[in-house]
Specification:
Blueprint lengths: L3 H4 L4 E4 L2 E6 L2 E6 L5 E4 L1 H12 L2 E2 H10 L4 H13 L3 E2 L19 E5 L31 H14 L5 E7 L7 H18 L2 E8 L6 H9 L3 E5 L4 H7 L9 H14 L5 E7 L6 H11 L4 E6 L12 H23 L7 H11 L14 E4 L4 E3 L11 E4 L4 E2 L1 H10 L14 H4 L4 H8 L10 H21 L10
Parallel strand pairs: 7-8, 7-13, 8-9, 9-10, 10-11, 11-12
Antiparallel strand pairs: 1-5, 1-6, 2-3, 3-4, 13-14, 14-15, 15-16
Helix pairs in contact: 2-4, 3-4, 5-6, 11-16, 12-16
The protein binds S-adenosylmethionine (SAM) and iron/sulfur cluster (SF4) (2 copies).
The site of S-adenosylmethionine has 19 residues, from β9 and β11.
Length: 482
Amino acid sequence: MTTVAEVMPSLAYRPAEAHAFRAAEADFLYLVPSGAIFRMEGLGKEVVDLVRQRELMRHEIVGYLSNRGHDLAEIEATIDELDQAEVLISGRSKPPAPVVPLQSFPLQRVVLNVTNQCNLACTYCYEYSSDRIAQQDGKPKYMSADIAESAVETLIKESAGREGLHVTFFGGETLLNFPVMRSTVQYATRRVAELGKRIEFSLTTNATLLTEEIVDFLSEHRIGVTVSVDGDQELNDKMRVFHDGRGSYSVIAPKIKNLLKRHRTNSIGARVTLTSQVSDVRRIYRHLTTELGFDSVGFSPATASPDRLYHIGTQKMDNILDSFAELAWEYRDYALEGRQHGFTNVSDTLKELNSGVSKAYPCGAGVGLLGVGTAGDVSLCHRFVDAPVGKMGHVKNGGVDHEARGEFLATHHIGARYDCHSCWARPVCSGGCFHEAYIHYGETSAANLHYCDWIRGWNDLCLQILGEISVRNPSFLERFDN
Ligand SMILES: C[S@@+](CC[C@H](N)C(=O)[O-])C[C@H]1O[C@@H](n2cnc3c(N)ncnc32)[C@H](O)[C@@H]1O
Ligand code: SF4
Ligand code: SF4
């Protein structure tokens, strides 16, 4: 067989763009932009270590390693394998595929903001705080059943080829419009059955309005629930308050316990919004799991302009990363014993890294997901409902505005976020949340550079955890396959 060395004896090799990390006493490379993870061992590691020092010609690599006593054929085969796996770059390597922005994409999910009203007045809420971007003058307070049904029809029409659809109910406080949520679930279930498709539902709620009747409905229709709660009474009540300033914890705690007891047909997770005043991640996690009984808890920092009191500055974000790390190592310990841990920030990141994701867009907004406001206006996502930017049509008047959506997709893919082009974390981050960018920089297309160190630190940590699990208990990772 003719080797590459015979055909191109003077091929030069250099390492591919990668982030190196160690786990379980082994060396790994996270390859960018493919998102593949490569464990370096044996002869392959020797080759990579050589070319990481300086670019080398093929015959130099072969000569050096054969002097070290390695078999010639084995060296040649290893170089070819590394070349094919794109761990090494040579004159033979394919140039990186250009990022081609999507023009359109079949829709998978609509988020229906069934009301823009709320019975709470959480200090940080982007719907009502000084960072609010929604303009609701002239919009109805509650979505009608007619608009919600048109939104379902829009989802069906725009989801060509997809078997599984999803409707998320959102607000304002979602359960203030429970009648429309209930009728929409019934309508959508019937419509997709006629079409031989599947549909799932979920809602996000502040839990204050949960009743036995609502819980039974959620359970009967297998509706996934995300409950917003920021920890124990003292922490939750710092920000999650009624309009008269009373904390919401004492109202929601018994309702959450009842929900967790009675609704067992789908996942129920807690969603914590972190601020400069509420950032004790371990204390919050322990309370929500052991006292309230949640199986899963996810944390997200509040999106806020830097001058808001509750905005989390760099120092606090570093502290939060340290607490995230402690909980993440606990997740690793559980995983090595084959047990599930409820810190969903880790499982979400591991899932992405394990699947070798390489994102052109940071999330589903505008891609597989669109938001719908109470009047039927379509937007980039639920955070942009009724905002002056991210408008993408109307569920009754013309449906999705494909031109506006195409324009958005063309200008917001990772190729257009120039600041991110040399960042190793771009396959998973892709520049970050459009809403966060809009609040911070006034531009949805800006890269969220204020979070870069955090994003890279977090992904490096999760890569180490993934590497260790892949060596010590690889069967644990099977749960991320679907
Ligand atoms: C806007 S609320 C709507 C649904 C419902 N009222 C609730 O509280 O769950 C949805 C989620 O957004 C979160 N949220 C509100 N303002 C936020 C902000 N500025 N940054 C990040 N998350 C925020 C809330 O804590 C809640 O978990
Ligand atoms: S309950 Fe939800 S919508 Fe209402 S103020 Fe709080 S975060 Fe905002
Ligand atoms: S926003 Fe920062 S961390 Fe994210 S891809 Fe861009 S440069 Fe990297």
